[in-house]
Write a structure and sequence with these properties.
The chain is α/β, with parallel strands linked by helices. The protein folds into two domains: about 5-35 and about 150-240, 3-Layer(aba) Sandwich (Rossmann fold), CATH 3.40.50.10090; about 45-145, Rossmann fold (3-Layer(aba) Sandwich). About 35% of the residues lie in helices and about 20% in strands. It contains nine helices and eleven strands. The chain has helices at about 10-25, 60-65, 80-90, 100-110, 130-135, 155-160, 175-180, 195-200, 220-240; strands at about 5-10, 30-35, 40, 50-55, 75, 95, 115-120, 140-145, 165-170, 190-195, 210. The strands form two sheets. It has a six-stranded mixed sheet. It has a five-stranded parallel sheet with strand order 2-1-9-10-11, with helices on both faces. α2 packs parallel to α3. The chain is elongated, with a radius of gyration of 19 Å.
């Protein structure tokens, strides 16, 4: 049975963190890093009287730091991974431990005084600032980084055309759409999608197996991917041998 491949398409810093966490708990796979998005901070930083920051990605925290931003007294994050990045940057984050809906619900429940600012990328989902502002909590938003698309690497395309099973974690609908537009290969494709929305973005792309974690965060994605890596041989055998 060929060695399973873990294909990571997140921006490189996040992909390397994910790979390190998975590698601590499972062996016997070949990793390929082929980011489909590149993170490019761009300024200048916004002039703001906000008392708190909202981050829906660790990329936003990194961009804020790269542009010289200082911690604000209040900080909300969509999940724990983003909270860890914010804490390392000097914030005292409060994590919603979920998705944009959970983040909006958390901030509405706490009803902080003073304006907030959502620091985000060019491509963003959830409409966090508008929803909170409509709920009576003033939030402005500032785009502080871009996420230009990249093509899959030659190594990644070769893997998708090979015989070894490819385990593919997907963290955004945008990258799922990019994968779906890639010419189909013959490798058994096993996908972990962080949410039903991301899974839906795959469209008609055929996969051997699709898993969605119970909670949309990095830790639950790691657990799903580890399980798929451990079970990859049995998965392929159930759906047809790739040997020969």
């Amino acid at each position: 049975m060929p060695t399973p491949i873990l294909l990571l398409t997140r921006p490189e810093p996040a992909a390397r963190r994910f790979l390190a966490a998975v590698s601590e708990r499972v062996e016997g796979f070949h990793p390929i890093l082929s980011p489909l998005l590149r993170i490019e901070p761009h300024g200048p930083l916004p002039q703001t009287d906000a008392v708190g920051a909202i981050f829906t990605s660790a990329n936003g925290v990194a961009a804020w730091q790269a542009l010289g931003g200082a911690p604000l007294p209040l900080c909300y994050t969509v999940g724990d991974a983003t909270a860890r990045a914010a804490r390392a940057a000097g914030f005292a984050p409060i994590s919603a431990q979920g998705n944009a809906d959970a983040l909006v619900a958390l901030i509405r429940a706490q009803a902080p005084r003073g304006p907030l600012i959502h620091l985000r990328g060019t491509h963003s989902r959830g409409d966090v600032a508008r929803r909170l502002t409509d709920a009576g909590i003033p939030v402005r938003e500032a785009v502080i980084y871009d996420q230009p698309a990249q093509e899959l690497s030659a190594e990644a395309l070769m893997a998708l055309s090979g015989q070894a099973p490819v385990i593919l974690p997907l963290f955004s609908a945008r990258t799922a759409q990019q994968v779906a537009q890639t010419p189909a290969g013959r490798a058994p494709l096993i996908v972990a999608a962080i949410s039903p929305e991301v899974a839906d973005a795959l469209g008609a792309l055929y996969v051997q197996r699709l898993e969605i974690p119970a909670r949309a965060d990095a830790e639950h994605m790691q657990a799903v991917v580890i399980g798929l890596l451990k079970d990859s041989g049995a998965l392929v055998k159930r759906h047809g041998s790739v040997e020969g």
